[in-house]
Every structure is written in structure tokens, then in C-alpha cells.
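Appendix C: a fully annotated inverse folding record. The material below is reproduced so that readers can follow the format used throughout the book. The structure is listed first as C-alpha cells, followed by the designed sequence.
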């Protein structure tokens, strides 16, 4: 899936236009200063907004940034200051092709599971479990499966767009709770965010190993 190279220049503008700061607030909701993170893995971090936040929030942490879109990597690199460059390891690879000997205190999957087939969602969770520190956390942020017509139409439109450029393997949201249960991940915390027509549109989970 390299369709994100096509939409990378416009991605953040589109997100801000449609959602404002809602997606960013959801991604960072559980990223409190009290977390002890020596190693963070960000998978599919887009244009680097989440990366910038983590660099600021955790000033001594090292971050591995795995993103399959070379354009997204290029845009993310521009957000990193000279003094922080040694703290970030950019990996322009599919998460399924990337390998590491590291273990991570925190793994972030921001709007990633909604892109992959059921089989690949399970494979991704299995891979992140294998490199997650025993006391670490996995934070998954994504769209909630709400019955509201406006939200269903909005999510459907996004899938239509992403499928048209080859940026997703699916056409509807996955069953998140079933995925977590299948991979024996425990929900430590969860939070729905959004107001008005976006009420509870976005869902974020802090998961731990069972």
C-alpha cells in the first residue's frame, strides 16, 4: 500500500479541515508525562505531528518511526530539530518487512488497524506484542463504529478515497475488541472522543499484555 505517497502533501490539510484537532487529541490522550518511555515505536505516523509531540513530551526518549510512505517520511523529517535528529530512527518500510532486536516501552498505532485486512491486523498486533516490553503499553487510536448516519457516511467516504489511491486493504472498520481478544491484549484504559456531529467518533485504547 503506497497510495499515501499520492495524498501525503494534502493529508494534514484534509484532516484539519474535516476533523480539526480531534484526531490529534485522541492520539495523544494517553501520552501523559508520567509514562516511563525509554524506547517508543510509532507505526504509520503520517506527516510527523505525533512524532513532534512525543519528542517534546519525552525529551530523553528514543523513537523508532516506521512508515511505508517515503513522502510521509520526508515530511516528518522536516519536523525534527537538529538536536533531536539522533533520537529518531526513520524506517521507510512496511511494518511487516521491518525487523528489530529492540524491545519497546510504548508502541503507537495511530489510525493504522483500519487500513489492513483482518489477517494483517492480527499479524500486526502479534508483531507488536513480540517487541513490547513486559510492562509496556500499546496505544491504538482509530475511528469508532457508531450507528450515526453522518459518521457512517464520513467513514465510508474516507474508505472510498483511500481505496481509490490504493492506500487501504479494506472497506470498513475492523472489529477492534475481537482483534484484541484474539491476540490476548488487555484493555487497560479506553476513551471515546468527539462532540456534536462527531460525538464519540474516535476511540483510543491503552492496551497491555495479558
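Designed amino acids, in order:
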Amino acid at each position: 500500500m503506497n497510495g499515501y505517497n499520492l495524498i501525503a502533501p494534502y493529508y494534514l490539510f484534509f484532516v484539519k479541515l474535516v476533523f480539526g484537532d480531534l484526531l490529534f487529541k485522541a492520539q495523544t490522550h494517553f501520552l501523559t508525562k508520567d509514562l516511563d518511555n525509554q524506547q517508543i515505536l510509532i507505526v504509520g505516523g503520517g506527516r510527523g505531528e505525533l512524532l513532534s509531540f512525543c519528542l517534546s513530551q519525552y525529551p530523553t526518549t528514543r523513537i523508532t518511526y516506521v512508515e511505508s510512505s517515503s513522502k510521509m517520511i520526508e515530511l516528518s523529517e522536516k519536523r525534527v530539530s537538529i538536536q533531536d535528529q539522533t533520537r529518531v530512527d526513520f524506517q521507510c518500510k512496511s511494518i511487516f518487512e521491518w525487523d528489530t532486536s529492540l524491545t519497546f516501552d510504548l508502541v503507537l498505532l495511530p489510525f493504522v488497524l483500519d487500513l489492513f485486512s483482518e489477517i494483517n491486523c492480527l499479524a500486526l498486533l502479534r508483531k507488536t506484542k513480540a517487541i513490547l516490553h513486559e510492562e509496556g503499553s500499546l496505544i491504538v487510536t482509530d475511528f469508532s463504529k457508531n450507528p450515526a448516519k453522518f459518521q457512517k457516511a464520513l467513514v465510508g467516504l474516507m474508505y472510498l478515497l483511500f481505496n481509490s489511491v490504493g492506500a487501504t486493504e479494506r472497506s470498513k472498520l475492523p472489529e477492534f475488541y475481537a482483534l484484541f481478544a484474539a491476540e490476548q491484549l488487555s484493555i487497560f484504559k479506553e476513551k471515546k472522543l468527539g462532540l456534536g456531529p462527531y460525538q464519540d467518533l474516535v476511540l483510543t485504547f491503552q492496551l497491555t499484555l495479558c
